[in-house]
Amino acid sequence: MISFRSVRHGYGNNISLKFQDWTLQQGEPWLLLGNSGSGKTTLLHILTGLLKPQQGEVLVKGTNLYQLRPKELDLFRGRNIGLILQRAHLIRSLTVLENLLLAQSFAGLPTDRQLAKATLASLHMEEKINRYPHQLSQGQLQRVSIARAVLHRPALLVADEPTSSLDDKNAEAVLQLLLCQARATAATLVVATHDQRVKTSFSNQYSLPDVAV
Ligand SMILES: Nc1ncnc2c1ncn2[C@@H]1O[C@H](COP(=O)(O)OP(=O)(O)OP(=O)(O)O)[C@@H](O)[C@H]1O
């Protein structure tokens, strides 16, 4: 279970974001909706351990993220939280496979080539494992980014605007991929978007109100 309680965060420029409490059960897919500037990125960063809120607590699998020491938090994130950003942020001088192995080692886990290869194969990327990032299409880069995020069966899988730059067909394919990967690993999935096309695929929705400035 993941929970978000009494969370507030401000940026010191009259912007104070107050988030409604939120409880997500293990394995549930959720959509996080909000217009530009409503606080989606802020909330995702708080939820994934990247930004300590000024108030409130975030529990992932019973662990209060912001009570961990920085090093413990890094390890906890690497093992339990998978993050998919709009851009893949791969290391350009490493192959697809090497990028995944590096992610394992950053998470403090033993490098496991077979697991990395099998995960890439499950995303139909087996023929690209020795390619470099610049040799891949945007859709393929996104698959690598999904593979890297699900590699260790994280309890929480978070995707920030995964479909906004894609056409209808690819947007639907990426969504199905995320839902399917989350189901396969019983991960709680959070997809943040302002893409109206995505709305119908999720019954659980957490909506952010517009921020009055
Ligand atoms: N580092 C910062 N310093 C000052 N204000 C910030 C900072 N980061 C975000 N904000 C402000 O906080 C509010 C929420 O920003 P946030 O990026 O979380 O929204 P968002 O919903 O993700 O927007 P978008 O969809 O446009 O990316 C905005 O008004 C933004 O200007």
From TrEMBL:
It holds the Pfam family ABC_tran. GO terms for molecular function: ATP binding; ATP hydrolysis activity; transmembrane transporter activity. SUPFAM superfamilies: P-loop containing nucleoside triphosphate hydrolases (SSF52540). Residues 2-211 form the ABC transporter domain. It comes from the Bacteria. It comes from Pontibacter qinzhouensis. The keyword ATP-binding applies. This is ATP-binding cassette domain-containing protein. GO terms for cellular component: plasma membrane. The keyword Lipid biosynthesis does not apply. Keywords: ATP-binding, Nucleotide-binding.
